[in-house]
C-alpha cells in the first residue's frame, strides 16, 4: 500500500504524460500532478483529496463524479473538461481556465476562484450535486448579492463584512451600533 501512513497514493505524476489515460475510480489522494499532461484522460469517480494539480493540463478530460476536496488546482487548464457531479469543496482554482467546462451538478462550496472565472461559470451553472446535495449555482454564489458584494476568499480584505467599528477613543460608535463592547 503506497502513501503516507498507508492512507493515500502520494504518487508522483509531476510532468507525466497521461494523455488519453484511463484511471476510473482510483485513489489519487495527496498525489502530485504538477504540470502533468492529462488531456482527454478519463479520471471519472476518482479521489484527489489533498492532491496537487497546479499547472496541469486537463483539456477535455473526464472528471465525472471525481472528488477534488481540499485540492490545489492553481493555474490548471480545464478547458472543455467534464466536471459533472464533481466535488470541488475548498479547492483552490486561482488563475485556472475552465472555459467550456461541463459543471452540471458540481459543488464549488468554499472553493477559491477568480471573480471573472466565477462569473463566467455562473452564466451556465446548473444542477445539484448528488453526493453533497448542494446546488451548483448556490455553491458558486451566483446571484447572491451579499456574497458578490464582498468578493471571494481569494480577496481576504473583501471576503467578509466589515469589522465592528470603534470610535477614535476605542469605544463603540453609539450612532451606528457596530460595537457590542462597553
From TrEMBL:
Pfam families: Pentapeptide
PANTHER family documented for this protein: THYLAKOID LUMENAL PROTEIN TL20.3, CHLOROPLASTIC (PTHR47121:SF2)
Protein name: Thylakoid lumenal protein TL20.3, chloroplastic
UniProt source species: Chenopodium quinoa
